[in-house]
Queue: 2 jobs
Job 1
Amino acid sequence: MSLYQLQKFLYELNRSPQVQEDYRGDRARALARYDLTDEERAALASGDIGLVYVLGANGQLLMHFAAFLGMPWPDYIQAMRDGVAKYGPVRAGIYAMTTGMDEKVAGV
Amino acid sequence: MSLVFAGICSHAPGITGRASMADPQLRDPLYAAYGRMRQELLASRPDALIVVAAEHFANFFMSNMPGFAIGMGERYEGPIEDPAWLGIGRTAVPGSARLAKQLIQEVMQTVDVAYAEEWKFDHGIMVPLHFLTPDYQVPIIPVNINCQGPPLAPLHRAWAFGEALRRAADSVSERIAIVGTGGISHWPSTPDSGRINEAWDRDLLGRWERNDKAALLSYSDTETYRDAGQGGFEIRTFICIAAAARGRGHVQHYAPIPIFAVGCTVGTMEIAA
């Protein structure tokens, strides 16, 4: 796992219009600059928010990736739940899920 | 001159970005409380406003993460987020490089602090400014305490940083206001977003109102993470303000608003000698 590199991509995507343009144009090429595992690379390339969450991405980075992908807030929240259901608990970082799968504490 | 105003407030992006999803009966009293804080802040006639924030990887990352940082730019830009997502238009915010340099030099007498001539404001600063200085007429001195990427500075260092900021504010001829922004208990940007530990929040705010240094510094990060989530690490900003102001605090507003992901807080603190 190279969580630092995964998060570095998200950090640079959030900050840089050039990285955003690169990702829109050719995702694999944009990600080639980062030392990622195959699983991380596939998750970022496909925009699989649920898997990126389970891999341990900090939510403060991840929520902007979801917004960049055009995902409304309720869909973003649900995508993370779906990720935990599909891939299992969050594997690293400090953004583990602590509520139940159907709890929806904010109604979404 | 001296410190002329001190306060705290929430900065969650949902406060502006998800405004339409909130119950107006919860949302509007919060907005009104921000409005009263704005009036009190502006009545103090500040020449500059220090915003002690807990930014979210807009400028600082684990490649080179400062525990404490102060902006030293002539101007800043924000928000870094999509303006439509945040509900705040992108704008230039005035700073004061000269004043910031003076403050930094004094802070450095006791606290090693990074400085930055470039700084993109994220919601952690833009949401408070949206309510407190919506015309962006007051020069801003941005300050950051790393609350996102552990290891984090211990709470007693956040206190020492607040003391240093006070000493710095008192050392310049300008009238300085200071506002700390952060969440209390919250689990932001996760499926738990909206979980709020109200009892923990109210206990923390009681300690803050009493300006009880020992009680404020008694939390361990392990306890905070367990009881208040990763968002709870942002109590460092409130602790910093208590150390800077030294007086009694007054929580003007507190209400959990789950769709905003936080117990929404507005407070002011008396400035003691």
Job 2
Amino acid sequence: MGVIRLRPILLNLAVAAFAILTTIPLLWMVSVSLMPGGEANRFPPPFLPSHVTFEHYRDLLFGRWVEGAHFDYRIIPALVNSLVLASLATVISLCLTIPAGYAFAKLHFRGRARALQLLLAAAVIPAQVAMLPQFLLLQKLGLVNTYLGAMLPQLAGIYATLYTRQSVLGIPDEMLDAARIDGASEWQIFVRVVVPLLRPVIVTLGLFAFLASWGDFLWPLIILTDQMSYTLPVALAAISREHAQDGELMMAGAVVTTLPVLLIFLALQRYYISGLLGGGVKG
Amino acid sequence: MHGVGAKLVAAGKGWQDRAMGAADQEHATGCTRRTLLGGGTAAATLAACGARHDPARVTMWAMSTEGENAPLLLPAFERTTGIGVDLQSLPWTAAHEKMLTAYAGNTLPDLMMVSNAWVPEFAAVGAIVPVPPALLGDQFPGIAEQVRVGQHHYGLPWVIGAHVQFYLTAPVRAAGHDRPPADWAGWVAMARRLKARDPDNWPILMMLNWPEHLLSFAVQLGQPLLREGGRFGNFRSDAFRTALGFYKSLFDQGLAPRLLSTEIEDPLTAFARGTFTLYPGQPYMVGDLDRRPGEIRRDQWATAPMPGPRGAPPLGLVGGSSLAVTRNARDPARAWALARYLCTPATQMRFHAYTGDLPSRPSAWGPLTDPVSQTFATQIAHPGAEPVVAEWERIKTEMQLVAEHMVRGSFTVDAAAAEMDRRTDRLLEKRRWMLDRGTST
Amino acid sequence: MTRTERAGLVFATPVLALTIAIFVVPTVAALALSVTDFDIYALADLANLRFIGVGNYANLLGNPLFWRALANTAIFAGLGVPAAIGASLAAALLLHSATVRWKPLWRVLLFAPYVTTLVATAVVWRYLLNTRYGLINRGLDALGIAPVDWLGNPHASIPAIVIFIVWKIFGYNMVIFTAALASVSADLDEAARLDGAGRWLRFRHVTLPAIGPTLLLAAILSVSGFLQIFTEPYVMTQGGPAQSTVTVLYFMFDEGFRWWSLGSASAVSLVLFALILCLTVLQLRVGRRYEWV
């Protein structure tokens, strides 16, 4: 018979077209970052570089020496700041929210229900309402322009706590009681029984925390006043105000800012997607 | 640090063991309470770190062109005095807010470059300190007035400039003039001729989000922009409305495009290509143009004072940037040493060679006899008066926002002037209250 | 106190303490700030502070830029939420179709924009939307459409940014909807098909009710997200042209961190809070009517 079904072909083409259109801006970003200077401002705009050059990455990352003076966009310090800040924020917030989530699920203490309501209520507050007083508070504490100041709003981790609680609720009480009967302390139960079971949750939450910290813009823009403390997004935004005419340089900056998280995502997609879908603890 | 490392290693081992199906939970979770506590404290301590500045070095902030070229001046200073300098460059559009934020957060640098328009504001809130009188000699009188608040001067003038027009010589000559006419009517007529010859391009480039263009017309007429000692707006005066009407007519006649600075990434390339013939601007553009010999040569452009209502020499928009030591300065003496060095005539002349910026010291002007510098000199000799109030930066911004709306058709000239006054009066309300209380100047 | 109680308190207290210190106290402080005229003068000397009651709120109501910011934000949400949810749903439906191959690859590609850093992609799109040199206009040119002055025309600026935002975020809900679609009862769908219901009817009466709750949650989160747009106008247009992309949050940032009128800015932030709360409650009400909650 050989009837060619049209619909599947069309659907596949549609998805492919959709996906390619979606990826074009990112491909163009990489392509322009490799173009020689000034090429992107030609009409009609080119799609591929005439010849590949890494000069913008070199200028961006390593600066230039002119007449004994060093000109530096300070991207490498920004990269280090982003890495350190995101890592610290992730580790600290995990250490705070995982135990808390467990406590809210399995450890009954007086006022627990009330405390949970407080968390839920606080979760509704948009971050910006608290930002101005937070700044004044951190100024009094001398934490303006510090790593701690930059990560503090993220550390409270209300959603992470609630998410952990949801996951922990799936752990059977008998498992915990059995460990208690065996004579384990609460801490040991947490560390030896609960945490291993929560491993996928921990990876997912850690991933979310890292990505959120890396991409955070408004708060670091406010709290980091010194160019040496800037994170990558803040540094990139500052450069884009001054060097708008250097399209190739800006694309190189965009690639440097985006590439690390893109790679991390590709490596840990499974956890990220499962985290989006609500996760949970299996068995 | 050891705690964090141990914790991470232990966690890593834990995953490894589980993957191999090891049942030894003891091994997998080496994070005892103590390790966790130690790690946590170490992490928190690290987190409290900010950017570490060597206290012996002077921190300095400068903007845009000056910020990017000042590093060329520093090696000599560091060699002769042994004082290291950490320079940061800020974009102009974000500088004012970054400085105020740093003031609010107590993280100001030792020395900073401030626009003269901001000096009253920063002085009013105590962000910057008075200049030692010994450093204050050899200034242009108009400039020195801009940085004086009460009895003291709060900034040491560093670079000065004036608002003049840069023009392409060839099209202007083709339109029948050696240089642009000095009166408004003649200037507009020439622009119309330019437009007729080249309808696809624009004679004049004036960014809709820069207040300087409107202000340069406004100060020419000699009437103050605020009245009653800076208590109320004076935008409804005849003088200002005349200037406003003139400004609007340039856009309405199609002589200038309705563009914001964000929409035109490279205005100098456009100027070089002839897209615009008249480009009012500041001295730093001289340096920028000189850096593109491939696109435009020195003999292809020239400068002239802005046209006046009835001819030359009109009052002009004159200003500049000064160096100020902040209240957070750890060692003011070193900071002033750097400021003094940057303002010596020799250093200012070197800076002029790099950037096109003009020296603030009259004694440095000897060698500057070329026509371009002389144009600026003429304008600087006739400064128009700008208000010296703390809110001026914000008032200028609001004024230009209303002007942009007017140019796009949302207001008539009179309605725009009334709206500017309304917003200005509201912004000045606190100042009025403080003046009445006697706590401000 | 039993052992579990003690452990529970120790485990939970840090998060609670941080929440109170970082969110609850500052929110109350914001309320306090909003009834004063705290500004740069007050920062210098607290004696310059005045209590002005509802003065800030009254000034906001009389400030045309505030209304403009509200209108812009409403347009952003009004255009953006349907566009974003529509795009996500379309992508999810495509991916859900049994006849599509290489799904994991397409899913990663379609999701990639969501993971990229917002500031970086905003910079990239600023160049893409350039009137003369941007790829978007070049693409339109290939289709025979005249170039659009995306970021220079006050009427095109919001659609331009909405296109960017939809590109950036549609992957998120696409994944959520894909999972929701997978949970739609295949039997019900098959029964409807046997009864002769066309594709559209099946979608309306079988699929849509099943994914209703997911749609509602996505809508609530989307609306909340669109009401808090800041980075895109900051990086791409600085609020222009003609303040057509000033959003409520951008306005708050200007008031608070550019001009340091903290009293006024706090008032704006509380208004924003109230707005988000009202809209969320409204959407929940609507959802309850359709029994999606």
